[in-house]
Fold each of these.
Amino acid sequence: MGRKKAVSGIMLRLRKEYPEFRTALHYRSDFELLVAAILSAQSTDAHVNKVTPGLFGKYRSVKDYADAPLEELQKDLSSINFYRTKAKNIQNSARAVIEQFHSRVPKSMAELTSLPGIARKTANVLLSGLYGINEGIAVDTHVKRLAYRLGLTREEDPVKVEADLMSITPREEWGDLSHLLIFHGRKVCHAKKPEHSKCVLYDICPSRDI
Ligand code: SF4
């Protein structure tokens, strides 16, 4: 089976399996998704979702993050990995969003990746989640692992994996493909001990015997 046909079949099955497949991060505004996305690097969405209700209750606007004493913001994030750097990036992003983008999270890859703490993967999450814009495919550890196991790429570098996936998936599906692979990676195709017997992709997966 060609890779284009394979990805289309995989998405069809995963959409049925995970009808609720959109981003698992909780947020109420564009800047709150940016904050949650920065916090989620090297952390789990479930843990971020435990921290953000208190955080979003205290910091209610972009300006609140920009004006907060850094030590206080760091303290409020201290249960998250790399909280010192993340707090700095959130505060500097808030300042840049206010000064350069009229307090709105920008809508292009170039503008987003100019913000501190926002690399291409996070920018893809924000563009797709906030604006329905597909500029690329967010490749996190789940997407990278599943794309490889499912035979959609032979690459290991996330930028090359992204290019491979973009070349075989219709553009309007890019955001959804990332979410679907992330859901399946979390629930069934774990890094250690993937649960092949529970997998809806078992019969078409080249890695079902690993
Ligand atoms: S069959 Fe196994 S390796 Fe393949 S996608 Fe399913 S869980 Fe992952």
Amino acid sequence: MARYAFEHLESIGEALRRSPFGLVTDVDGTISPTAPTPQQAEVTPLCRRYLELLCQQIALVAAVSGRSAAQVAEMVDIGGMVYIGNHGLERWVNGRPELTREARGYQAMMAAALSELKPLLSMEGIIIENKGVTATIHYRRSPDPASAEKQIAETLQNSSQASKLHAMPGRMAINLLPPVATNKGTATSDLIREYGLRSGVYLGDDVTDIDAFKAIHDYPQETGFHGLAIGVISEEMPEMFTGEVDFTLNGVRDVERFLEWLSRTASQPG
Ligand SMILES: [Mg+2]
């Protein structure tokens, strides 16, 4: 049973004393409240302020998102932060998205799948977000989300192109991904290795973050790395993943308070 982070700040602080320390965070639902459409979502001013401070204080501050890397860069836009997009399939490097090796070559398949999925757009409240190498079908604005979800799943199964892709459920959305082993978890492990981290935190609110929670826990102990998985609980995402996390926070407001605490803790001599 995961515990409420604010009741255990001392042990969290203890675990994070090892340097280099890194923070890897999801974006939507974690540092940005859920909005009716993806375009309307924004990083809250307080999250922005503390992430900016943390960039000066710790070895790594990274955002990992299902959005495209370009969208993450535009939306977060904090100097010194690392942006990973498309569920780990691309990274923002020198002002451009760079696909991982595994992801290259799947853009044509995704485009073909999306053209087969066009009939979905005649359903009320369905938005298809084309992110190049991945796509997300949102049904948040559907008048009947449960039946919309079912209909989307059926359409995916009946599409010769989309059925070759990996369909991953998210918050009021279904993500279409290339059938490769890259995810938020592999992206997080890569960051830990690259930055030689000895401690770190992953913050996330969604089922797609579970791979990253696992990566934080399964990272080889002999490297000296010790990480904490912190789940952001919301009404939409109840406690379904609390078995995967060490601690919980309640919503984006709590994330703001946690980042503030983290920044204050990081500025104190250990
Ligand atoms: Mg999220």
